[in-house]
Design brief:
This protein is of the alpha/beta class. Helices cover about 40% and strands about 15% of the residues. It starts with 7 loop residues before the first helix and ends with a helix.
C-alpha cells in the first residue's frame, strides 16, 4: 500500500514488494484506487502479466481479506493520514514501512520493520537495493524493472536531483536485468490534453523573490498537469523552485518542486503538506487558490528569514 493518488514511485516500489513475496512463495496484493492515481499506464502494463492477475485490489477488498497473519507493507509514505487506506492500516498489527521522505510530525509509529532513508532518491531505489539481496535477478519481471526505474526517474527528475552513487548503482542494476529506458520514457509520456493543460498553467506564473515561480491554475486541471507544470517551470532560466496551485471545487491541491536551496517540503509542511526537499505536495479542503498562494508566500518568507 502506498500513498493516495499513487505515482510511479509508489507503484514501482509496490511491484518490488510483490516480486520479493513471489520469490518466497507468497501472494502479495497491491491496495490502490484504480480510478484516482497518476500511474495508470504502468498499471495497465502490469495487469497484462499473469503474475499480476488479481493483484490490484480496492481498500474494501483489502480490509475484508486482512487477518492476524497479514503483513501490511506501506511504501512511499510514513504518514498515516496519507496512506491509501487508513482503515487497513488500523486493521493490521504487522506493519513494515519503506520510505524516503523526511519524517513529519505524524508518522506510523508501530511498524515492526522500518526502512526509512531520507537521503535516498526514491522508495524505488530502496526497494531495488533490497531486491539485490533477497531475490535472484531472473525472478524480476522486465515490467517490474521498468516500473522501478520509472519511479527513480520521476523522483530524481531524470537523475538531476536527489541523486547519489547509490542511485546510479540501483539504476545500473535495473538496466542489467532488463529495464528499458525507452519503455520507461513511453510509460511516462502524457497525452495532448495534459500537455496543453500544463502550458496553460505555466502562462499564469509569476516570479517571487527573484527565483521562485508561483502559478495558479484557472479552470479544471488534472493532478498530473499540475505536477508536470511545477516540473516544467524549473526549466525556466533563473527559477530554482516552483509551486503550482489548482482549485477543484472547494478543494485546492499544490505541487512544489525545487532544484535549489529552498526545501519545498518544509514550506508545504507549514500548510499541512509533505514530501521531500525537491518534491512536495498539499491538498486543502474548503480553501481558495488565492488564499493558498498567499500562505505559500508567507511560508517562503519564514524559511528565508530563518
Amino acid at each position: 500500500m502506498g500513498h493516495k493518488f499513487a505515482d510511479f514511485d509508489s507503484v514501482g516500489a509496490a511491484c518490488g514488494v510483490c516480486c520479493m513475496a513471489r520469490a518466497k512463495g507468497k501472494k502479495a496484493r497491491i491496495v490502490i484506487d484504480l480510478e484516482n492515481n497518476v500511474s495508470q499506464d504502468v498499471i495497465d502494463l502490469l495487469l497484462k502479466e499473469p503474475e499480476y492477475e488479481d493483484t490490484f485490489i480496492s481498500e474494501q477488498e483489502a480490509v475484508l481479506a486482512a487477518d492476524g497473519n497479514t503483513l501490511l507493507v506501506v511504501v512511499d509514505t510514513t504518514r498515516p493520514e496519507k496512506v491509501e487506506s487508513e482503515s487497513l492500516l488500523l486493521s493490521c498489527s504487522q506493519i513494515a514501512v519503506v520510505d524516503h521522505h523526511r519524517r513529519a510530525a505524524s508518522y506510523i509509529d508501530n511498524a515492526a520493520f522500518n526502512f526509512h532513508e531520507p537521503y535516498a532518491s526514491s522508495t524505488s531505489e530502496l526497494i531495488t537495493e533490497m531486491l539485490q539481496y533477497l531475490v535472484e535477478a531472473e525472478d524480476i519481471l522486465s515490467i517490474e524493472a521498468n516500473a522501478l526505474l520509472a519511479g527513480m526517474v520521476l523522483d530524481t527528475k531524470g537523475f538531476t536531483v536527489n541523486t547519489g552513487s547509490r542511485t546510479f548503482e540501483a539504476a545500473a542494476f535495473l538496466k542489467r536485468i532488463g529495464a528499458d529506458s525507452i519503455m520507461v520514457k513511453k510509460i511516462m509520456q502524457s497525452n495532448i490534453e495534459t500537455a496543453t493543460s500544463r502550458y496553460d498553467i505555466m502562462r499564469n506564473a509569476e516570479i517571487y523573490r527573484d527565483n521562485i515561480a508561483l502559478a495558479s491554475a484557472v479552470g479544471v486541471h488534472s493532478r498530473i498537469s499540475v505536477a508536470q507544470a511545477a516540473d516544467e517551470l524549473l526549466n525556466v532560466k533563473g527559477v530554482y523552485a516552483s509551486f503550482v496551485v489548482a482549485q477543484d471545487g472547494s478543494d485546492v491541491f499544490v505541487s512544489g518542486r525545487s532544484i535549489g536551496d529552498l526545501n519545498v517540503q518544509v514550506v508545504l509542511e507549514k500548510l499541512g503538506g509533505g514530501g521531500s526537499q525537491a518534491t512536495a505536495g498539499l491538498q486543502v479542503q474548503n480553501a481558495s487558490a488565492s488564499e493558498i498562494i498567499s500562505n505559500i508566500k508567507l511560508a517562503i518568507d519564514e524559511c528565508y528569514d530563518k
